[in-house]
Design a protein that fits this description.
It comes from Fagus sylvatica (Beechnut). By secondary structure, this protein is mostly helical. It has 19 helices and two strands. It is globular and about 105 Å long.
Length: 421
C-alpha cells in the first residue's frame, strides 16, 4: 500500500543528510532563541508594569502621608502652623485635581477644619482655614450637599449657632472678608435651583448691611457676593421672600406679590448703596489705589444691576489670554490668584484641573528655552571677570591666540626658506 502524506514526510525527515539535520537543529535553536527573547520581553513588561504600580502606590501613600502630617498641625499646632498647614492642604488638593483622592482630602479634613474654626479667633488662622475649606471643597466636592455643608460651616464662623456652651464673639473685619470671599467662591459652583432656601434666608439682608461697614475689604467682598447672587438668579432663596418664615415658605395668608415686593425693595436698597460706593470720595488716610479699586468694582456692579452686563476681563498668561465674562468666573479667578500667590502663573500653565475650570489652553513651552534660560543673577555671574566661566573663557582665548601665532611663525619661516632656495 502506498504511504500517506504524513508517512512520506516522516520518512523524508529520517533519511535527510547530516546537513539537513544540522539545518533542523539550527532552526530549532533559532525558535528556542526567539522564545527566550519573547520571554525576556514579557518579563521586562511585567517588571515595568509592577514598577508603574509601585510608583502609583508610592504617590498615593506620599499624598496620604502629607495630608495626615498637615492635619496633625491643624489639630495641635500654633496659629502660625495651622495657617501654613491649611494652605498646604489646599495646594495639595489643587495639585491632585478631580477624583477620588481629592474627595478623600475633603472628607479627611472636614472634621479637623471644623474643630479648628471653633477654637480661637485669631484672624490669620481663621482666614487660612476658610480658604483651605473653600479650595478642598471646590476640588473634591462631589455634590450640592457637600458644598452646602462647607458653606454652612463658613457662615457659622460669623453667625454661630448659639447655645449654653458657646460664647458669641464679634468677628473681625478680616474674618468677615475671608468668610464672604470663601462662601462666594463655593457659590460659583452651585446650581441656584438646588440651593436649600432655609440655609440662606436673610443672607441678602446681611450682605447688604456689610456694604455700610467702614472696612473697604468687607464692602468689596459683600458687593461681589451680592452681584453673584443676582447672577445665579435665585434671589428668593437668599432673601426669604417674607420675613418670619423658618423654612423658606411664605407666611400663611401672604400673597405672592408681597414676596416679590420684598425682593424688589431689597434690590432697590442695594442699588442705592452700590451707586454711592461707586462714587465715594474717600476718607482721610484712605489709599488711593484701594479707593479706585472699590469705585471700579461698584461701577461694574451698578451696570450689572441696571443693564444686566457682566464685567469682561482678560489677563495674559504665557502669551495666551485668559478671559472672564461673568461674576462667577471673575470671583473664581481672583480667589485662586490670591490663594496661589506667586505660583498662580505656573499652575495656570501646567495644572490640568485649572485648565478645565477656566477652559484655558496655554501655549506649549519649548523645552530648549527652559533648558538654556538663565536668570539675571546667573548672567551677571557669568559676566563677572572673576567668575570661573569667564576665567576659563579667557584661558581658552589666550591658548588659541598662542597657537595661532605659532602657526603664523611657522608659515612665515617656510616662506623665507623657500625664497632662499
Amino acid at each position: 500500500m502506498g504511504k500517506n502524506k504524513s508517512q512520506r514526510k516522516n520518512t523524508a525527515i529520517l533519511v535527510d543528510s547530516d546537513d539537513d539535520n544540522s539545518s533542523e537543529s539550527s532552526t530549532s535553536t533559532m525558535r528556542s532563541d526567539r522564545m527566550s527573547v519573547s520571554g525576556t520581553e514579557e518579563v521586562q513588561l511585567n517588571k515595568d508594569s509592577l514598577l508603574d504600580q509601585a510608583l502609583d502606590a508610592l504617590y498615593e501613600k506620599r499624598c496620604t502621608t502629607l495630608l495626615h502630617q498637615f492635619l496633625n498641625c491643624v489639630k495641635r499646632g500654633s496659629s502660625r502652623e495651622i495657617s501654613l498647614a491649611s494652605h498646604a492642604i489646599g495646594l495639595l488638593a489643587l495639585t491632585v485635581g478631580y477624583g477620588d483622592k481629592a474627595h478623600e482630602i475633603l472628607e479627611d479634613s472636614i472634621t479637623p477644619l471644623s474643630q479648628a474654626l471653633k477654637s480661637g479667633s485669631e484672624s490669620t488662622k481663621i482666614a487660612s482655614l476658610l480658604d483651605c475649606l473653600a479650595v478642598i471643597t471646590f476640588v473634591g466636592g462631589n455634590d450640592t450637599e457637600e458644598t452646602e455643608r462647607s458653606m454652612q460651616m463658613m457662615w457659622q464662623v460669623v453667625h454661630p449657632k448659639l447655645n449654653s456652651k458657646v460664647v458669641a464673639t464679634k468677628p473681625s473685619a478680616a474674618v468677615i472678608t475671608a468668610m464672604v470671599s470663601a462662601w462666594s467662591f463655593l457659590l460659583t459652583t452651585m446650581d441656584g435651583l438646588k440651593l436649600n432656601p432655609k440655609h440662606w434666608q436673610e443672607s441678602i439682608s446681611y450682605l447688604s448691611s456689610l456694604l455700610d461697614k467702614d472696612d473697604r475689604s468687607v464692602r468689596i467682598a459683600a458687593g461681589e457676593a451680592l452681584a453673584l447672587i443676582f447672577e445665579v438668579g435665585s434671589v428668593e432663596k437668599f432673601s426669604g421672600e417674607v420675613k418670619g418664615s423658618s423654612d423658606g415658605s411664605t407666611q400663611e395668608g401672604s400673597k405672592p406679590r408681597e414676596g416679590f415686593s420684598h425682593i424688589q425693595g431689597l434690590k432697590g436698597k442695594i442699588i442705592n448703596q452700590v451707586r454711592n460706593l461707586s462714587a465715594e470720595a474717600g476718607g482721610k488716610g484712605s489709599a488711593k489705589k484701594d479707593l479706585n479699586s472699590q469705585r471700579n468694582l461698584f461701577r461694574d456692579i451698578l451696570e450689572f444691576f441696571e443693564d444686566g452686563y457682566s464685567p469682561e476681563n482678560s489677563i495674559k498668561i504665557g502669551g495666551e489670554s485668559l478671559q472672564t465674562s461673568s461674576w462667577s468666573q471673575q470671583i473664581q479667578l481672583n480667589f485662586l490668584k490670591r490663594f496661589l500667590g506667586g505660583g498662580f502663573i505656573k499652575h495656570m500653565q501646567e495644572n490640568e484641573f485649572l485648565h478645565d475650570v477656566f477652559e484655558f489652553k496655554p501655549k506649549k513651552k519649548n523645552l530648549l528655552d527652559d533648558e538654556y534660560r538663565i536668570s539675571s543673577a546667573e548672567k551677571r555671574m557669568f559676566k563677572s571677570p572673576n567668575s570661573v566661566v569667564n576665567k576659563a573663557r579667557t584661558q581658552l582665548l589666550n591658548k588659541q591666540r598662542m597657537l595661532s601665532e605659532g602657526r603664523n611663525v611657522g608659515h612665515y619661516g617656510v616662506n623665507v626658506g623657500d625664497d632662499e632656495f
